[in-house]
Design goal:
The structure holds 2 protein chains of 2 kinds.
Chain A: H1 3-18, H2 20-44, H3 49-60, H4 63-73, H5 77-95, H6 97-126, E1 137-143, H7 156-165, E2 169-180, E3 182-184, E4 187-188, E5 192-197, H8 201-205, E6 211-212, E7 228-231, H9 233-240, E8 250-253, E9 256-263, E10 279-282, H10 286-289, E11 308-313, H11 319-341, H12 346-354, E12 357-362, H13 369-406, H14 408-416, H15 421-458, H16 473-499, H17 503-507, H18 515-551, E13 561-566, H19 578-593, E14 598-604, E15 613-618, E16 624-632, H20 636-640, E17 644-647, E18 662-666, H21 667-674, E19 683-687, E20 690-698, E21 713-717, E22 728-734, H22 739-753, E23 759-764, H23 765-772, H24 774-808, H25 810-818, H26 823-853, H27 868-894, H28 898-903
Parallel strand pairs in A: 5-10, 7-9, 16-21, 18-20
Antiparallel strand pairs in A: 1-11, 1-12, 2-5, 2-11, 3-4, 3-8, 6-9, 7-10, 8-9, 13-22, 13-23, 14-22, 15-16, 17-20, 18-21, 19-20
Helix pairs in contact in A: 1-2, 2-3, 2-4, 5-15, 6-13, 6-15, 6-16, 7-11, 11-12, 13-16, 13-18, 13-24, 15-16, 18-24, 18-26, 18-27, 19-22, 24-27, 26-27
Chain B: H1 3-22, E1 25-26, H2 34-42, E2 46-52, E3 58-64, H3 66-91
Antiparallel strand pairs in B: 1-3, 2-3
Classes of the chains: A alpha+beta, B alpha+beta.
């Protein structure tokens, strides 16, 4: 249609829609006018007034029909019908408020769990980072040969060289997370998440400043860069109340003066999904903002991999071509680096780097550790919540079916007065879709709360997770779609069934109940039982797996051990300040050891929940092994409570400069490398080209994921290991004191030794292990929750169906009792029906569960997916709960008074 | 609906438009035509005005809009072509 046309028609349509009463009245008047004229005409022809009027009406052929036709001509009837249907649906739902409340709650739980999980999926996997042309971004990473996960950290030197040599990108930018201590106007603020970024970072991303300016390359050059900082929008709002005066303001970051030059735009929190840096400084300021650490920029010994690298592809360069080219450049760069850094270590570096090759990853959705960690659990959860929603739908469909038989009379009346079947189906669908939408609306609230709780639950680790969970159009669209589909799915079959009523029996009071409805209702309940068995069994498997993980022998004792992270200034032990640090650590060890409740104190590079480095070790007979290698202090094994099987622990003598190189190996390593020989006293080449003497064998300690069986491991003392450490983990075993008292004492002792020594994240090893098991706990918790929900819904569904059947059969039961059936006969009659339904559900559910559990096998620890105990326990639980659900109506049937039942109709 | 009645429906619209093009009018002798008038009004081809009639009653007067006039020309053209074609076919001599 032409716009000119709309000029005429749109006001008309709007008028018919919103002023339909007036439009109707006009038609009315017009027709009355017509009738009067016609009557006058006929009177003029000689008829009596009465006859003329009658004749005029006959000519018109039915005023109401004509009016209806005029309304049709206005073409907005369907909207009016819809409004009418909606009004009617609201009235019907309001009339049975109890049913409506239960139905909306059920659907809200179903839709809400789906929305919560989806908003998590959306935030972690789907949202694009708010930068210019995110599709053009590419992250650099390295991958080991064996298909291991991608590592995204690089040396500064590698970054610089790649940037100079690569022709595929308009540029490469680098960034790194950092914890910063900020003080403003002499007041120190709580430590904030910060970020170091290269000078070209903002330009490359195409991100401007909300106010002030972004960094340029000039800010990031020279040996010490320039002391400028940007702050995030949120930090600007919360700390400076959005004042524009802050540009040019001086703040202290880790004791050095910085000038705020700009604020990042609202909603921009960098490329790392799950973190939100509040203060951003140029890369070259690393030594300034991290006075405790080594200078990671210094050449040529910069062997800390701390940088993430992102690039923007030149237009027209395919990512595959760039990947192939970058791989070659990277290989060349690393080979050069290996020879330049430190000739003593060349062979070691080359060996370690030989296995890694460069890969490129599309960067539109940012980069995230969360993604690797949660991709699989999230897909499992997505399936779980989908099943929950299906069960919820089944349940409501069943109740609607039951109601539809109650509403047969109403339907029959409506058909009798001329409503078409399509109109009835539409009316019923409007009702169920309305239920779905109401469920969806409450579901969004539940989901918001649930997703927040989820994030809170996941944030027990060392760095809090911050994810943007504000529902975007994708999440809202998902929920709207889910609600709509839910409404149609629950309503369609009941609507078709009840609109297809046969008139005559329907109009008679409480006509005979068709059997097809019951068969369908029973099929629904059976599938509900089967589906909930799948969920319950899944919950059982995850929960058992978690229990196995928490109980199993990790090779160390978790209770009564504290871990404390320390970051002393210049903690590059091997090269600088070695003596000062050695003294400091010794003093800490002695002072803490003198606390009465303390049993043992030691230091290590990492806590047992972190993955240690891998190193290649050569045994005397020339065999090479890849082993985990950890750097520790004396008494480490005693502190962790792990037993020394052979030989001895490290002693303080091993720590003194010039002491012979020694190593402790674990059981697995000893068995693989030395078979039946005694490993004590054997020399292994472990530290560069340095040979170490094996002085002890310890029981395997399971590091990192706890699930891995550990493999071979080797321990060395700190001073003899090839790397320096920016951070140390103090381990402390205590006895007979409460954790909180112990934590207070430790904190006090450390600050009395050196008030400037940052000691943070004091926690028990137990909670550290719990944090490491966060994925497993998440899965166990949610799958048990959803399993419980499923069983509850199945029970409600079964209860509803059996109650309904009992209600329909009240008269029959009354007759049976009157004819002499005993109460227990009746009870077994009804219970028999329940048992049949649940039995069939379980028979179908067991193979379904077994088939489904194969997909979660890789998540399970210490049990098979087909674990018979879990399966039979699930079947048992489901049987008991559903029997209870069936027993209540059966009991009611048993108590039927034959007189009341027979008079009932 | 089958084709012929569509054709009749279309011609009815055209006829109504033509009648109103001759002079704006109030009401019709045949009451069953009101829905058709409503349809034309909704299409924006005719417009209605409430006026006081000679006898002092309110009455609805219909008149053609600019769009309606164009529509009438178009339909009249079509009709001319169609009736021409039909009559030419009808006049063909049987061999």
């Amino acid at each position: 249609m032409r716009p000119e046309h709309w000029l005429y028609t749109i006001p008309l349509r709007l008028r018919s829609l919103f002023r339909w009463a007036q439009a109707d009245q006009e038609v009315d008047e017009e027709l009355r006018d017509h009738l009067e004229r016609k009557t006058e005409e006929y009177v003029a022809q000689g008829m009596t007034q009465e006859k003329a009027h009658r004749r005029a009406r006959l000519d018109l052929g039915g005023i109401e029909q004509t009016k209806e036709k005029c309304r049709d001509a206005r073409r907005v009837n369907w909207i009016q019908d819809l409004v009418q249907d909606l009004r009617y649906a609201f009235r019907m739902l309001g009339k049975s408020a109890g049913f409506t409340a239960v139905a909306v709650l059920t659907l809200a739980l179903g839709i809400g769990s789906n929305t919560a999980i989806f908003s998590f999926v959306d935030a972690v996997l789907l949202k694009q980072v708010p930068v210019k042309d995110p599709q053009g971004l590419v992250f650099l990473g390295t991958k080991g040969q064996s298909g291991s996960s991608t590592d995204h950290s690089f040396y500064f030197e590698t970054y610089e060289r790649l940037q100079l040599q690569q022709p595929f990108f308009t540029g490469l930018a680098a960034f790194s997370p950092v914890q910063l201590n900020v003080s403003v106007d002499g007041e120190s603020e709580p430590p904030v998440e910060g970020q170091l970024v290269s000078g070209n970072y903002f330009e490359l991303l195409g991100v401007g400043a909300a106010i002030g300016r972004t960094f340029s390359n000039a800010d990031d050059t020279g040996p010490r860069g320039s002391p400028v900082a940007m702050i995030s929008y949120d930090y600007w709002q919360s700390l400076f109340e959005g004042s524009s005066q802050i540009i040019g303001k001086e703040i202290l970051i880790d004791g050095s003066r910085f000038v705020i030059v700009g604020v990042t735009p609202r909603g921009f929190s960098g490329l790392e999904v799950g973190s939100s840096p509040n203060v951003i400084v140029p890369l070259t300021m690393q030594p300034v903002v991290m006075p405790d650490a080594e200078n990671w920029l210094a050449r040529p010994r910069n062997t800390v991999d701390w940088l993430r690298i992102v690039g923007r592809l030149r237009s027209g360069v395919p990512i595959q071509q760039a990947a192939a080219g970058m791989r070659v450049i990277y290989r060349r760069t690393q080979t050069q680096l290996a020879t330049e850094i430190d000739p003593n270590w060349t062979t070691t570096w080359l060996k370690e780097w030989a296995e890694a090759h460069l890969v490129l990853e599309a960067g539109a959705t940012g980069i995230s550790n969360l993604r690797n960690q949660f991709l699989k659990p999230l897909s499992v959860l997505t399936v779980l919540v989908a099943i929950v929603l299906v069960i919820a739908c089944t349940n409501i469909a069943n109740v609607l079916l039951a109601r539809s038989s109650v509403r047969r009379q109403e339907m029959a009346v409506r058909i009798a007065v001329g409503a078409g079947r399509a109109r009835l189906v539409r009316q019923l669908l409007v009702e169920s879709v309305l239920l779905g939408l109401m469920g969806g609306a409450f579901g969004v609230l539940l989901a918001d709360w649930g997703a927040r709780a989820l994030i809170h639950f996941l944030s027990v680790g060392r760095t809090p997770i911050s994810i943007d969970l504000t529902p975007d159009s994708r999440v809202l669209g998902f929920t709207a779609l889910a609600s709509l589909v839910t409404g149609v799915l629950t309503g369609l079959v009941p609507a078709l069934q009840s609109s297809g009523v046969d008139l005559s029996p329907g109009l008679m009071k409480g006509g005979y109940l068709g059997t097809s409805r019951q068969v369908f209702g029973k099929a629904l309940v059976v599938s509900e039982v089967a589906l909930s068995l799948v969920l319950v069994a899944g919950g059982g498997l995850f929960a058992t797996s978690l229990r196995n993980l928490s109980d199993f022998d990790s090779g160390f004792q978790r209770d009564q051990v504290l871990t404390v992270r320390l970051a002393p200034k210049g903690s590059d032990q091997k090269r600088t300040n070695a003596n000062r640090l050695l003294g400091l650590y010794q003093q800490i060890q002695e002072n803490l050891g003198s606390i009465p409740a303390v049993v043992a104190v030691s230091f290590a590079g990492t806590s047992p929940t972190e993955a240690p480095q891998l190193r290649t070790v050569t045994t005397p007979d020339g065999q090479q092994f890849r082993v985990s290698s950890a750097q520790v202090y004396p008494h480490y094994f005693e502190t962790l409570g792990s037993s020394i099987l052979q030989g001895r622990d490290f002693s303080n003598l091993d720590m003194s400069p010039g002491a012979p190189y020694v190593a402790v190996i674990n059981d697995t390593f000893a068995r693989h490398a030395f078979r039946n020989e005694n490993p004590i006293g054997k020399k292994i080449v472990c530290s560069g080209d340095q040979a170490c003497t094996v002085i002890g064998v310890v029981k395997d300690i399971k590091y990192s994921s706890l699930k891995s069986n550990g493999g071979a491991a080797m321990y060395m003392t700190f001073l003899q290991a090839p790397t320096g450490r920016g951070q140390m983990v103090l381990h402390l075993r205590f006895a007979g004191n409460s954790e909180s008292v112990m934590m207070g004492q430790v904190r006090q002792q450390i600050s009395s030794i050196d008030p400037n020594l940052p000691a943070f994240q004091i926690q028990t090893l137990e909670s550290d292990v719990d944090a490491a098991l966060v994925r497993e706990r998440l899965l166990a918790l949610l799958s048990v929750f959803f399993g419980g929900l499923a069983i509850l819904l199945a029970a409600v569904g079964l209860y509803g169906l059996i109650s309904h059947i009992v209600a329909r059969r009240t008269r029959e039961i009354g007759v049976r009792i009157a004819l002499g059936a005993s109460r227990s006969n009746i009870l077994s009659l009804v219970l028999g029906e329940t048992i049949c339904l649940e039995g069939l559900g379980i028979v179908l559910g067991v193979p379904a569960s077994l088939a489904a559990s194969r997909f979660i096998e890789s998540f399970l620890y210490g049990l098979r997916a087909t674990d018979p105990i879990v399966m039979s326990a699930s079947v048992g639980l489901l049987t008991v709960v559903t029997l209870l659900a069936g027993f209540v109506p059966a009991y009611r049937a048993m108590r039927v008074d034959p007189m009341v039942a027979l008079r009932y109709e | 609906m089958s084709k012929p009645s569509d054709m009749v429906q279309g011609t009815l619209d055209m006829l109504l438009l033509k009648i109103l093009a001759l002079e704006p009018m109030n009401g019709l002798s045949d009451g069953s035509l009101y829905p058709a008038l409503h349809k034309l009004e909704q299409a924006g081809w005719i417009t209605a005005e409430w006026m006081t009639s000679v006898k002092g009653r309110g009455a609805k007067y219909y008149s053609l809009t600019r769009l309606g006039r164009r529509q009438l020309e178009k339909e009249a053209d079509n009709w001319g072509r169609l009736s021409n074609a039909i009559s030419r076919v009808i006049k063909l001599k049987e061999a």
